[in-house]
Amino acid sequence: MNAGDTLIVPQPTEGVDGHLWVIVSDPSQDADRLVIVSFTTYGRYKDQTCAVRPGDHPFVTRDTLVCYSDARIATNAQLELLVTKGLMKRNKPVSAELLERIRQGAWKSDEISLEAREVLVDQGMIG
C-alpha cells in the first residue's frame, strides 16, 4: 500500500459502511501505523475542515467531507489481508494535491485523534 491509496467496502452491510477510505500516512516510513480517514456526505453540522468536491476524485459525486473523527490506525498487513479476503477493494488513489489537503486538514481539525495526529507529525507529514 502507498500514501494516497484508497479502499472501499465493496458490499456494505449493517454496521459496515461503503465510505471511501484514504491512506494518509506513509507506509514506507511505518507499515505498522497507517493513518486512514474516510470521506462522508457533506452536512453543515459535520467537521468542515476539508471539503472534497465532485471532480476531486472519481468516487466523489456530491459535496463530501473528510471525516477526521473516524480516523483509524491500521497496519499494512491488516489492510492487505482485508483486500485479499475481499472485505475491502482498492479504488483509484487520490491526487497528490488532494492528499496534501487531507493532511493539512488533519493538522487543523479538532476531530482527529491525538494518536493519528502523532503518527503524521512523527512522519513529517504535518506540523
Plain-language structure description:
With 127 residues, this protein is α+β, with helices and mostly antiparallel strands. It has a single domain, classed as SH3 type barrels. The chain is 24% helix and 24% strand. It is built from three helices and six strands. It has helices at 76-84, 96-108, 114-122, and strands at 6-8, 20-23, 34-41, 51-52, 64-74, 89-91. It has a six-stranded antiparallel beta sheet. The longest helix has 13 residues, at 96-108. The radius of gyration is 14 Å and the shape is globular. The model has no long low-confidence stretch (mean pLDDT 92).
Largest sheet composition: 6 strands, antiparallel
What's the rounded overall pLDDT mean? 92
Given helix and strand content, the structural type is alpha+beta
Unreliably modeled segments: none
Shape: globular
Number of E-type strands: 6
Oligomer: single chain
Note the total helix count.
3
